[in-house]
Design goal:
- There is one protein chain.
- By secondary structure, this protein is mainly beta.
- It has one domain: Hotdog Thioesterase (Thiol Ester Dehydrase, Chain A, Roll).
- Helix content is 13%, strand content 35%.
- The protein is built from 4 helices and 12 strands, in the order E-H-E-E-E-E-E-H-H-E-H-E-E-E-E-E.
- It has a 10-stranded antiparallel beta sheet with strand order 1-3-4-5-2-8-12-11-10-6, covered by helices on one side. Strands 7-9 form a two-stranded antiparallel sheet.
- Helix 1 packs antiparallel against helix 2.
- The longest helix has 11 residues.
- The protein is globular and about 45 Å long.
Length: 282
């Protein structure tokens, strides 16, 4: 039997795509309620972990240990990106299962010191058939101050979104995310030394995927820099041959997130950077 927190460890969960969820996410993002299948990345509302108060850590996450490695010497844990493959769709009312497996634990030396990357593969199934496979990268690091921002540069044209405290609060609730950097400004500034509340990386990725005009077959997501509440976020869509590149820039022109979407190979006559309804406007 594989020990928890090590390569090969697994856990299973069940959930339901409750019909109320799409409307709540649409209200949070500022878009129309979708008809039919869940849009890309909206499955992150499912399979939430709600630890009892006695088992919540100082950062608002469940205490270390259990399925994921504890690594107490590296107290900061962040989502670094995901790779997804879609073999089907999820619809309101679907009963779903998820099998999660730790597939990799690697150590690197970064600018802020020691980093440990943990890769978890999630297989989400409906009626016994896997419809979404996601490899998620989590990074553990020391309690170091965030890197300084680069000098301002040109900002590409795109859809402009300004995430505010209400959007962050709603997204935290919808995804069961208790991390205090998203709602507790004194904690974010004092304990983790951020200049403001941090916008969820998955929220930025979800906003970017609102620019897609066709359902993706694959998504490769890389979180590059934190995004802070109250700052303009510029979302840019660049159609390519058989794929679409989505990038989020801050007001200084820095790339904060990159999403490569592999879509069905059909003609895409739309212009670059087209604004669509599934993103709220700043």
């Amino acid at each position: 039997m594989t020990a928890p927190g090590s390569i090969g460890a697994t856990e299973a969960g069940t959930d339901t795509v409750w019909p109320c969820l799409p409307g709540r996410m649409a209200a949070t993002l500022g878009c129309e309620v979708p008809e039919g299948a869940l849009p890309p990345l909206w499955h992150w509302m499912l399979f939430q972990t709600w630890a009892p108060r006695a088992r919540i850590g100082a950062d608002g996450h469940p205490q270390r240990g259990g399925f994921l490695p504890a690594l107490p010497e590296l107290p900061r844990r962040m989502w670094a990106g995901s790779r997804l493959t879609y073999a089907g769709e999820l619809h309101p009312g679907d009963a779903v299962t998820r099998i999660s497996t730790i597939t990799g634990i690697t150590e690197r030396e970064g600018r802020s010191g020691r980093l440990v990357f943990v890769t978890v593969r999630h297989e989400i199934a409906r009626d016994g058939a896997v419809v979404i496979t996601e490899e998620q990268d989590l990074v553990y690091r020391a309690a170091a101050a965030p890197a300084a921002s680069a000098p301002a540069g040109p900002v590409p044209d795109g859809v402009v979104v300004r995430p505010d405290e209400v959007m962050l609060f709603r997204y935290s609730a919808l995804t069961g995310n208790g991390h205090r950097i998203h709602y507790d400004a004194p904690y974010a500034a004092g304990a983790e030394q951020y200049p403001a509340l941090v916008v969820h990386g998955p929220l930025v990725a979800t906003l970017l995927c609102g620019l897609l005009q066709r359902p993706p077959q694959t998504l490769t997501i890389r979180a590059l820099k934190p995004v802070f509440v109250g700052e303009d976020l510029h979302l840019v869509r660049e159609p390519q041959n058989g794929s679409t590149l989505l990038q989020a820039y801050n007001a200084r022109g820095e790339t904060c997130m990159s999403v490569q979407a592999g879509c069905h190979p059909v003609a895409d006559p739309s212009p670059k950077h087209q604004q669509i309804s599934c993103v709220s406007q700043g």
